[in-house]
Design brief:
Length: 132
């Protein structure tokens, strides 16, 4: 548990510095990273980021002002607002990831086989499996 805590601390610090280099808070950077996986409803985004919906609204407002995301009404329910990453938002998310030198250098010290094993282990520990 201690080593996992240390590794997450290093990752978070690396991420925070990289996001700040793009004039973003860690929460704004995290929102871009989550949206890099695909559009998300505001409520789902707040749940994924474990923050209050009103806080999520502020984060998305600031990202939208910078042209990094846009909101669209849901296709099946117009009251639902989906957040979509713009091309500029994708570029910034990729730039943040590329600037995470401590994390990337650490991963580069692993062989392809070790990286695959690490991925498989982290997935097994942290990705919920559907009930059978």
């Amino acid at each position: 548990m201690e080593l996992l805590s240390v590794s997450l601390g290093v990752y978070y610090g690396d991420f925070t510095v990289a996001a700040a280099s793009e004039n973003l808070t860690a929460s704004q950077g995290k929102a871009l990273t989550v949206l890099r996986r695909g559009p998300a409803a505001m409520r789902a985004l707040a749940e994924t980021m474990t923050c209050d919906a009103s806080n999520m609204t502020g984060i998305i407002d600031r990202l939208e002002k910078r042209g990094l995301v846009r909101r669209e009404a849901g296709a099946s329910d117009r009251r639902v607002k989906n957040v979509i990453l713009t091309a500029e938002g994708e570029r910034v998310a990729d730039t943040i990831r590329a600037k995470m030198h401590t994390t990337l250098d650490g991963l580069d010290r692993l062989s392809d086989e070790d990286r695959s094993s690490l991925y498989a282990l982290l997935e097994r520990v942290f990705v919920p499996r559907p009930a059978a």
